[in-house]
Write a structure and sequence with these properties.
The structure is a homodimer. By secondary structure, chain A is α/β, with parallel strands linked by helices. The first copy, chain A, is built from 13 helices and eleven strands.
């Protein structure tokens, strides 16, 4: 028999499945995994195929990381804070109240050791993760009534989860867990008083302004939430060095692309929302300050009990302190001047 | 003879040279092309090789795009506004005074049709371009004396070029063209009164605070300057579809990576600069407003004469108007609250 010719097959066939935590209707966030998949396929002449499954197609959206960890699928596209029930450390890879904005989070992930630190933690779960999207600062959500003081939060039933729910519950909010499709009727009937979702572009599709018109900002619990691509660690390690590098490159590009798309789509959406009855309201300084203090109490408590959490949170905090020094100089003053021009109808 | 086996060579050998407009000492901005090159090489098992040459190694930095257009090299890593002498339209791919910040510029490039629009223009120059980095809002530069009013700008000799120089000359500034290495002695001797460079990380290396301690912000002429990867159009079109796609993916990743790196490095640099004598000063509202008006006069003048400029600038302006509506809601209020905490030593 003839020996096989010694030509390296530089793009081996790999077929992966990725479980998304998102429905296809959230086209920008769900679409982030599709963008990643297209980049891999195109760069390898179709040899590295990643098929993306919407939430519920293989596993429910909130079990996407479990499915990747146990090998049901090779990877997932999810938000790490969905898994705080297992360990609060998960949230630090994505967002916790009053952490960094999107640019800060990315600076920390890519250059401040964040990717490596969070992977030390994910490795224990059998996963390898990379940032794979960001929404920017989210909105604070939809409220049936105006809230001005901390007293107004007493007994307020709000659809909000994770760390944010824990922080707000210290101020009297009663956090509710409700699936996306059930929020509208719950707000309409008054079963709940408020609900947070994402930001203008995604919120516009759901029409909450008709039943809870007060649209508060900022969503201080999500200053720059990182959406993650997480892979089964063993499956990731089986990849060739070239494919591993390509996965990193495509993830970094897809990560950037999601925020770029939101930044392009949100301006039109916020105008439409306001035209259709949304009443924009800033959270008062009293509410923000009380929430900031409550968040710090929660962090101090968790740090005392959880060394993984402490290690990563201390790293984020150290960077956050200096990051917001620098951002208040050229960036903030440039934006402020441009916003004044916008308000003066000069743009 | 045996027929060659029918195995597609999916990663053909390609060797390109890229002329950078930057010296290696500007490691973050120069390094952007190295990051891009590494991504291509790794993903193709070393088959797609891009060698990066610093400014002056093949051609002077300000001739990098010419070298790519005429085929001396296959590509360049440059800032499009360096070529405003040929046509002011060049500047719109990078930055003009009072345009978008980095996130806005990227939203416009990737989702607002900016890449396609700018490539209509670049095609006439024999080039194909993609965003390949961003510095964020730059600083306004180093001044020997404080400037508070427009009157203080009269006769001020400032190292500044392009559109910014044109705008400031309307207010009495005398723009000077001086190569990077010559700025320090010119400031020291008083041959010039002021000089703009980049931002904290790059400025720190040059020690300008010793001879011109007033460090003004923001650099309103560079709210979010895009650094470009530009390729000889014919050479780009010879690439396989897989390589073209990989070039896009790697450029988008390298583009994001540069801003992420600056955002990580600038905070430490600004602290060092202040510790070493830099005096931070905001430009007064009078100077900013007069500059904004002067910029609009320049744009109206150029738009009347240059249809290419008009087409692209109208696209940027239309997006800018809505972008700064949205950014003043969740993003601005989140950042403001965090900056107040920073000033109160609560971070």
């Amino acid at each position: 028999a003839l020996a096989a010719p010694a030509i390296a097959q530089s793009n081996p066939k790999v077929t992966w499945r990725i479980a998304s935590s998102f429905p296809k209707s959230l086209d920008t966030i769900y679409g982030g995994a599709e963008v990643f998949s297209k980049m891999l396929s195109e760069a390898t002449d179709g040899n590295f195929q990643v098929q993306v499954f919407a939430a519920g197609e293989i596993v429910p959206g909130l079990q996407a990381a479990d499915a990747a960890a146990n090998g049901t699928v090779e990877g997932c596209h999810t938000v790490a804070y969905y898994y705080v029930g297992k360990d609060p450390t998960w949230a630090l890879g994505a967002a916790v109240p009053f952490a960094l904005n999107a640019r800060g989070m990315n600076a920390w992930h890519y250059h401040g050791g964040g990717i490596a630190l969070f992977n030390e933690f994910l490795a224990k779960q059998g996963l390898y993760g990379l940032p794979g999207g960001n929404t920017g600062v989210q909105m604070g959500g939809w409220f049936r009534k105006e809230i001005n003081t901390v007293a107004d939060l007493q007994g307020l039933k709000m659809r909000i989860g994770g760390f944010a729910g824990q922080v707000l519950s210290k101020l009297g909010v009663v956090p509710q867990q409700i699936a996306g499709g059930d929020i509208y009727p719950a707000l309409e009937k008054g079963t709940i008083d408020a609900a947070e979702w994402v930001g203008p572009y995604d919120d516009e599709k759901l029409g909450f302004q008709k039943v809870a018109p007060y649209y508060y900002y900022p969503g201080f619990w999500e200053g720059g939430p990182t959406v993650h691509l997480m892979f089964n660690k063993a499956k990731y390690e089986e990849l060739s060095p070239a494919y591993k590098s390509l996965v990193h490159t495509a993830a970094q590009a897809a990560d950037a692309n999601m925020l770029q798309k939101y930044d392009y789509l949100n301006p039109t959406a916020i105008k439409n929302l306001v035209a259709n009855g949304a009443q924009l309201r800033p959270f008062s300084q009293e509410i923000l300050s009380a929430s900031f203090d409550a968040a710090n109490e929660v962090y101090a408590d968790v740090e005392g009990k959880n060394p993984d959490f402490k290690k990563i949170w201390e790293s984020i905090k150290a960077f956050r302190k200096d990051y917001y020094v620098n951002m208040q100089i050229a960036e903030y003053n440039y934006d402020t001047f441009m916003m004044i021009q916008q308000r003066g109808s000069k743009l």
